[in-house]
Amino acid sequence: MRGKLLVVGFGPGSFEHITKRAQVAIQESDYVIGYKTYVELIKDLLTDQEIISTGMSEEVSRAQAAVKYAEKGKKVAVISSGDAGVYGMAGLVYEVLVEKGWKEATGVEVEIIPGISAINSCSSLLGAPVMHDACTISLSDHLTPWAIIKKRIEAAGFGDFVIAFYNPKSGKRTRQIVEAQQILLKYRSPDTPVGLVKSAYRDSQHVVMTTLQHMLDFDIGMLTTVVVGNSSTFFYDNKMITPRGYQRKYTLNTEDQRLRPHERLRPENEPWALHEGKKENQNPADLAAADSTPIALAMEALQKIDGEENKDKLSIDNPAIAQPAVESIFELAVSPGVANKKFTPKQLLVLAEAAGENGTMEYTPHHQILLRLPTADPDAITKMLADAGFLLSPIGDVFQIKACDFCEGDKKDSIPHAEEIHRRLGGLDLPKELKLGFNGCGMACYGAVNEDIGIVFRKGMFDLFLGGKTVGRTAHPGQPVAEGIHPDKLVDVIEGIVKEYKENGHPNERFYKYFKRVQQVQGFKHKDITPVIELEPAPCGE
Ligand code: SAH
Asked: Region Disordered: what ranges (predicted)?
């Protein structure tokens, strides 16, 4: 059977605002995949669907899991709040499909189901602020360089758009909304109406009407949409209203109209329009000056002041704004080798040079240094480090091998096997990070048995441990599942286990959980022996 992906926008959050098609789509699916909070919001709609919910910034694994199950013939609903095509999952699902060479005619079926986006739901609570040309700008710079976001705010300010700011602020991202306000104050009056809507149509809904000048005096967070009016938006009786322009031709307070219907579209009655034969103004400032709105007057005035203050204002000639240099944070792990634990002084110098003034070098519990640095050229950095003899590994949800130092190389018999595992599997993307501990003798003093997968070399053969729980109060070692695996078989056995987990693990599911769920990996059986921890009464009383 051909699988299907239903990418569903379920609106702001209340049941009344979920479309009929979205409800049916969720109910007719085999799987529902979404961000935990959103799955919670729609849980009353669910019947017997299998749920896969993951945390924030797990969108990519959600999209990949959705595609995987659809390819197995399942109907999979991927849910987004608001509209799935507005900073939602729709684009990402297509991007994952594109990477796999998907074609509409032959691949899994895809249906994108529209929902009410925050710009619409929030505006309805404010009055009618988005009556005219408007735009949405997300202030999240996790995936978009801040220089580009700034340029868009400048452009929207200059273009007099009503703006809905999505993702305006979070615990860590607090400066973006402050800078956005500063930019807009260059183009708009401090009294410009602003609406702050938190959790529209959810239990904790909260609406604030304020102004551009005072907007930061109120609480703005992850669940807020900030709607900034244009130069003609006004407040009336606690409503935020943007006029459409009817007053240019109509009188709204009398039934008698100045212009008869047949006169309304005549050029002389629309002197502001672009008519046949009329020469178009090329210069944006001239264009603005042809109008008499406050923004136009402000633009004209600014043109006359050629002051320092305005040097970073939007202008086609300003290369800093037109082409921002894009740097991003590059992260990777470096170590001297799989078995080798010794850095040379020269390697440390190279590491310091790579980190530069702004990078950081973090010593981790995994026998490696985590390097984070801002760069526009990651390839140059990796070349420099590889040339210094470093072993480089990506970080995140990938396969990593943690070997011992084989008694400083004395017990070197199994090192080639550890290196071969690293060559075949190192850096492989997985549902969750997975560490394989590899120790060169039965002492296992580097704790291989405590990792997700443990391998111990003993009497010329390998012992295998699976499903260590490496963190938490209920941490426990892996289960011994095989003794005496022949060296010729080892790497294939490990590859089989890791690939099976890659294929069938749910996003974010740690290896020990996967092993427990499926009970058998590559023929190795799980034993249900969860350790019971009994707490002793505290000696100092309750
Ligand atoms: N796809 C969603 C947007 C996701 S981005 C949509 O179309 O609405 C997340 C941002 O959307 C939040 O930071 C907030 O700015 C906005 N948002 C989503 N739901 C909201 C709601 N119910 N009330 C207010 N803002 C909301």
From this structure: 254-282
81 lines ligand 1 (CB under 6 A): yes
Mean pLDDT in residue range 136-149: 94
Q: Which of 269-283, 374-388, 501-515 has the lowest mean pLDDT?
A: 269-283
Domain spans of the chain?
4-116, 119-241, 331-393, 398-525
Task: Check: CB of residue 389 under 8 Å from CB of residue 347.
Answer: yes
Distance, CA of 66 to CA of 103 (rounded, Å):
16
Regarding the beta carbon of 176 and ligand 1, being less than 6 Å apart is answered no
pLDDT tens digits, one per residue of 246-274: 877 777 777 777 777 877 887 777 777 78
| pTM summary value | 0.63
**4-116 and 398-525 share one CATH topology?**
no
**4 dihedral zone (left: phi>0; alpha: psi -120 to 50; beta):** beta
Give helix then strand counts, H and E, for the chain. 15, 24
CATH class of 398-525: alpha beta
Closest atom of ligand 1 to CA, residue 199: 23
Cα–Cα distance, 469 to 36 (Å, whole number): 23
Characterize 116-137 residue by residue with b for buried, 16 or more Cβ atoms within 10 angstroms of its Cβ, and e for exposed. bbbbbbbbbbbbebbbbebbbb
Architecture of the domain defined by 4-116? 3-Layer(aba) Sandwich (3.40)
